[in-house]
Amino acid sequence: MSEIRTVTKISLFEAATSLAAICRKIEDGEELDSLILEEFGATTTQLAESIDRRKAFYGELNSKLELAKNYKKEIDVHMKRLKNVQERLKKVTMDTMAGAPDLPFKDSLGRKLTLCQTPAFLKLTFEMSAPRTFSILDPDSISFIGLPDKYIKEISFLTLDTDQIKADLQSGETLPYAKLQTTTYLRGL
Q: Out of 41-55, 94-108, 110-124, which region has the weakest mean confidence (pLDDT)?
């Protein structure tokens, strides 16, 4: 009858701790008898097996991550297609409703589809630079901190008065660099 041998897996930490204990025994001058050598060999094997398990698991995780990346790419493409179909459906519906404004566009529950206009907003024909952030100090802060004048710089800048431009356009003025714009959107879909 053959003997069944069970192999217990130990963790990487346990194997490393056991090897460190054996190395301390050797450093302390204990004799290298067969028991220590056998324990050293078994622990070294267990440590290698623990590292092999970690490498295999890491590789498995890596392949699953690659697979997930591929799935994500496919899902992104599919989502883009669905979004395009949704946008086309919305546009065709809006065009149909604009072509027949007298028809009542309602669903089976009586909820109405409506074409709506956004409030007029300002559209400039030129680009402005992005606003920069400054550290602004008031005189009380300067005196409280005790900052010398050499570390303080006064900056002045110009800004576009978009409220005034919008008001002038609404009053009928024509400006070559700005216009009021509205967009149409569909409510109820």
A: 41-55
20: tokens are 């460190």
pLDDT confidence tier of residue 80, bands split at 50, 70 and 90? very high
Residue 7 has pLDDT above 60, yes or no: no
Residue whose pair of structure tokens reads 């669905």 in the numeric block: 82
Per residue in 28-66, pLDDT (tens digit) is 766 666 666 677 777 778 778 888 888 999 999 999 999
Cα–Cα distance, 149 to 128 (Å, whole number):
32
**Measured between alpha carbons, how far is residue 82 from residues 61, 94, 109 in Å?**
31, 18, 26
Tokens read off for 175: 């400006």
**Hey, which residues does 175 pair with through a beta bridge?**
178
CA atoms in the 13 A half-sphere facing the CB of 67: 6
Q: Contact, 186 vs 90, CB < 8 A?
A: yes
Pairwise CA distance, residues 161 & 163, whole Å: 5
Residue with tokens 């660099």: 177
Render the burial of 3-21: b for 16+ CB within 10 Å, e for the rest.
eeeeeeebeeeebbebbee
Q: How many CB atoms lie within 10 A of CB 46?
A: 21
Least Cα distance to 178 among 117, 120, 126 occurs for 126
